[in-house]
Amino acid sequence: MRKALICGVFVAFCCIPCAMGASTDIDKGAAKLVLQSTIDMAKPAKPASFPHGAHQARLECKTCHHGKTAEGKRLSYAEGHKIEKCESCHNSKAGISPQLASFKNAAHTLCQGCHRKNNPDLVNCAVCHKKQPQALGGNK
Question: Distance between CA atoms of 83 and 66, rounded to whole angstroms?
Answer without folding.
Answer: 8
